[in-house]
């Protein structure tokens, strides 16, 4: 399994533009994954009860650590071979990669005028759509503005009437509220006067 993983890492890197650099990245990612896998397994074991499962936990944890150590050692042994294979493939495909890059550059150069022409066609179509829509939008804007002006004109007398009614209603509300306020004020004054008369002897005695 470890050998298959390491060879897979090598074969994946061989197809990338810069094999040695990409291979280092893939190996680093594989190391990180294996380390995270080991830590996840240890965290799962840590949740088991030490009283009941201590021996099993210790045994499994040790097996995981041994496997990780063996895998790292095997990776170190296989790495020179993988590097050699990748370098050989890289050298063998150097001309092909150069040719592909040249083809891509040529393709980009060939496509550029077509892209410019396509942009011009799209802009032309958008201008046509705009030309057809613009009168409708202007008509809607003018109609909407006129409607708002009419609505404002209709609302002005209503607003003035409401303002007059609010003033009148406020006075009526104050008139209706006055007896209640007066009753409460009189009752409070009565209670305060009674409290004052009750407390006066104590105040004089305290003085």
UniProtKB/TrEMBL annotation:
The keyword Acetylation does not apply. The keyword RNA-binding does not apply. One of its GO terms (cellular component) is low-density lipoprotein particle. It is found in: Secreted. InterPro entries: ApoA_E (IPR000074), Apolipoprotein_A1/A4/E (IPR050163). Keywords: Cholesterol metabolism, HDL, Lipid metabolism, Lipid transport, Lipoprotein, Repeat, Secreted, Signal, Steroid metabolism, Sterol metabolism, Transport. Pfam families: Apolipoprotein. Belongs to the apolipoprotein A1/A4/E family. This is Apolipoprotein A-I. It comes from Larimichthys crocea (Large yellow croaker).
């Amino acid at each position: 399994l470890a050998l298959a993983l390491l060879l897979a890492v090598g074969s994946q890197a061989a197809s990338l533009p810069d094999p040695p650099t990409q291979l280092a990245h893939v190996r680093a990612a594989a190391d990180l994954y294996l380390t995270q896998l080991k830590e996840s397994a240890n965290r799962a074991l840590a949740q088991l009860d030490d009283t009941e499962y201590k021996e099993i936990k210790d045994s499994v944890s040790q097996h995981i650590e041994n496997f990780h150590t063996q895998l790292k050692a095997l990776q170190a042994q296989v790495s020179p071979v993988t590097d050699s294979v990748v370098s050989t493939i890289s050298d063998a495909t150097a001309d092909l990669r150069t040719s592909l890059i040249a083809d891509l550059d040529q393709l980009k150069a060939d496509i550029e005028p077509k892209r410019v022409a396509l942009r011009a066609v799209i802009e032309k179509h958008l201008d046509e759509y705009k030309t057809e829509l613009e009168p409708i939008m202007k008509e809607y804007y003018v109609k909407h503005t006129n409607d708002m002006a009419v609505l404002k004109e209709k609302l002005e007398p209503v607003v003035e009437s409401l303002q007059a009614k609010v003033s009148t209603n406020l006075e009526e509300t104050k008139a209706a509220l006055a007896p209640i306020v007066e009753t409460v004020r009189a009752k409070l004054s009565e209670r305060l006067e009674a409290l004052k008369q009750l407390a006066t002897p104590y105040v004089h005695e305290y003085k």
